[in-house]
Each structure stands twice: as C-alpha cells, then as structure tokens.
C-alpha cells in the first residue's frame, strides 16, 4: 500500500475497498471494526456477541440492499463487512507474517 493509499484508507476514501460504496464515516467505522476483530480471539468475538452478555457490542447499519439493521451483534456486522469488502483489499489492516511459516 502506498502512502497515498494509506492516507485514503484512514480517511475512509480508498477507492475499491468496499463493493457497496459507503460514506467515508462508515468506511472508517468498518476499518476500525476490522482492526478490533483482529485483536480478539474467536471465543472473545463470540462472547461480545452473546445474547446473555449485558455488555455485548451492537451496531446499527444499512445493508447494500437498503435494509436497516438495528442492534446487530459484532459477529453479524463483521459478516456483513466481509461480504462487501473487495478481495483486492482483503488483507489491508491485517497483521501478516514477514516470513511464511516453515
């Protein structure tokens, strides 16, 4: 990623990152959610989405079909984000190993 692309990524204006063309504010929120998800283990993600967790994380968002999702769990929102993320930018923001595993 070039410096210019990184600046656009941080501003939520990186061309081709999302197939549904969200607003810059929504793109920034998605970028942040992807970073949060990478910091959590799968069991932690499930816990933060559990119905019986009084501190569960929920989000409101509009799907590509225009449907308004209210109180979507972290898992539901991540599933949607990943469904509209361009394959060309699949690894942006992810921690990649400098060397492949042996």
Q: How are the strands of the largest sheet arranged?
A: 1-2
Task: Domain count, please report it.
Answer: 1
The tally of beta strands, per DSSP, is 2
Mean pLDDT: 83
End-to-end distance, in Å?
26 Å
Spans of at least 5 consecutive residues with low confidence: 95-102
Q: What oligomeric state best describes the polypeptide chains here?
A: single chain
Structural class by secondary-structure content: alpha+beta
Which overall shape is indicated by the principal axes computed on the Cα atoms?
globular
Main sheet properties: 2 strands, antiparallel
Rounded radius of gyration (Å): 15 Å
Helical content class = 40-55%
Write a short abstract of this structure.
The radius of gyration is 15 Å and the shape is globular.
Tell me what you see in this structure.
The structure is a single chain. The protein is an alpha+beta fold and 102 residues long. The chain has one domain. The chain has 4 helices and 2 strands. The chain has helices at residues 3-11, 24-39, 42-49, 74-84; strands at residues 58-62, 68-73. A two-stranded antiparallel sheet has the order 1-2.
């Amino acid at each position: 990623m070039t410096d210019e692309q990184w600046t656009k990524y941080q501003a939520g204006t990186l061309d081709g990152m999302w197939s549904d063309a969200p607003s810059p504010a929504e793109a920034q929120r998605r970028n942040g959610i992807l970073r949060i998800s990478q910091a959590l283990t799968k069991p932690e993600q499930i816990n933060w989405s559990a119905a019986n967790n009084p501190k569960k994380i929920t989000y409101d968002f509009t799907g590509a079909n225009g449907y308004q999702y209210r109180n979507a769990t972290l898992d539901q929102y991540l599933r949607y984000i990943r469904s509209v993320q361009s394959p060309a930018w699949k690894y942006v923001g992810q921690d990649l190993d400098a060397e492949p595993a042996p």
